[in-house]
Amino acid sequence: MALMITDDCINCDVCEPECPNEAISMGPEIYEIDPDKCTECVGHYEEPQCKQVCPVNCIPFNPAWRESKEQLMDKYLRLQADAK
């Protein structure tokens, strides 16, 4: 599953630079995560880095975007290939 940022976000700016896939960007009011780019850091780290640094714990799993670890790895590999 991809991650999402809830309305509890305080726009502290710490999550955006931690995302290795550049899936986090500023939305109209709070930061948002692009589910097409979010791999939960699979392929990069053991744990999602945005969740690790979030001071208000407002980055849960997105229940509308369910993906297995294998699907996340496939997405990671596709994103890496697209970046070349």
Automatic annotation (TrEMBL):
<keyword id="KW-0004">4Fe-4S</keyword>
<feature type="domain" description="4Fe-4S ferredoxin-type">
    <location>
        <begin position="31"/>
        <end position="64"/>
    </location>
</feature>
<feature type="domain" description="4Fe-4S ferredoxin-type">
    <location>
        <begin position="1"/>
        <end position="29"/>
    </location>
</feature>
<dbReference type="InterPro" id="IPR017896">
    <property type="entry name" value="4Fe4S_Fe-S-bd"/>
</dbReference>
<protein>
    <submittedName>
        <fullName>YfhL family 4Fe-4S dicluster ferredoxin</fullName>
    </submittedName>
</protein>
<dbReference type="Pfam" id="PF12838">
    <property type="entry name" value="Fer4_7"/>
</dbReference>
<keyword id="KW-0408">Iron</keyword>
<dbReference type="InterPro" id="IPR017900">
    <property type="entry name" value="4Fe4S_Fe_S_CS"/>
</dbReference>
<keyword id="KW-0411">Iron-sulfur</keyword>
<dbReference type="InterPro" id="IPR050157">
    <property type="entry name" value="PSI_iron-sulfur_center"/>
</dbReference>
<keyword id="KW-0479">Metal-binding</keyword>
<dbReference type="InterPro" id="IPR047927">
    <property type="entry name" value="YfhL-like"/>
</dbReference>
